[in-house]
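Q: Hi! New to this. If I give you a protein sequence and the SMILES for S-adenosylmethionine, can you show me the bound structure?
A: Yes, paste them in.
Q: Okay, here:
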Amino acid sequence: MSDAGRIGDNVVMQQHAPRAPLPVPDRRGLELDVAGYERLTHDVRPLLGIDLAQYRPQQVWRRVVGFATSHGCADPDELVARARAEPDLRAAFREMLTINVSEFFRDPAVWERFRTQVVDPLVASRQSVRVWSAGCSAGYEPYSIAMLFRQASPTVRVQITATDVDEKVLAVARAGRYATTLMGGVSADRRARFFTPTTGGYLVNPEIRAMVSFAQRDLLRDPMPSGFDVIACRNVVIYFTDEAKAKLYRGFANALRPHGTLLIGATESIAGAKALGLDPRSPGFYTRAAPPGGLRSGPRQNLAAR
Ligand SMILES: C[S@@+](CC[C@H](N)C(=O)[O-])C[C@H]1O[C@@H](n2cnc3c(N)ncnc32)[C@H](O)[C@@H]1O
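A: Thanks. Here is the predicted structure of the protein with S-adenosylmethionine bound:
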């Protein structure tokens, strides 16, 4: 079954919490097979729409071999052949590669710093704020951001664009319905204020849903939008190549308004941030660096929900 389980007619996320590691095949199978990886890259592009050439080969190979073994396939070639014929396996394969594990207020200490260092100053100085949650998975991150802004100010207009490459998680995000087991990060106060209890779960209230629009977008392929005060891209790029990461971070720097903030994952850091146009501010937080001649906003491109 897919991870979008059903309670009556309601789609409810059932398993975006951390999972058990994949079974480990024998060590020889884990070593990168360069020709095998080239075949995999060639086959996966049309099959799943993912460009593995921009991912780190050794890490991806290990994950794919482990996934193939756990699904009874001798090797990645057999996995690809079966995934062509079996839609459920294809969906699981895609999900394994994009890794959409997430939760509300993931890494709470980071969100507390985000509230004091970013949200409070913005609502104190602005009438409207634009945020991009890039790699938003099933909506936990953009809805968490919406709740923080709404708690900080009932009146500031906040537009959160939430994008992900995976349509399946976006469908869950748009539904805004989460099983009770997935609500661990949401305090009783926030549940009461921002959710409506439903059978076996909670539905995000219209006030919060109205702040977020979801769109399908591949960070490795699609044009970069711009004009944001905040971009959150957390736990998304871990398997991207260094080159792909650098291109993306440079793009984020240009997509931020002057003094805008980029938030990355708690265990991530940006190598050579300054050269990419980002000033490190505190762990996980970067601000758009001012160029020598002063800051100019880039051309704005709106993200139409697709
Ligand atoms: C581990 S989740 C992170 C979710 C959330 N940002 C968080 O930190 O909890 C990674 C998400 O990135 C998405 N993703 C992976 N590759 C992507 C790409 N090339 N473009 C856009 N989203 C991508 C996945 O589909 C997945 O939902």
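A: The domain at 17-98 is CATH 1.10.155 (Chemotaxis Receptor Methyltransferase Cher; domain 1). Let me know if you'd like me to explain how to read the tokens.
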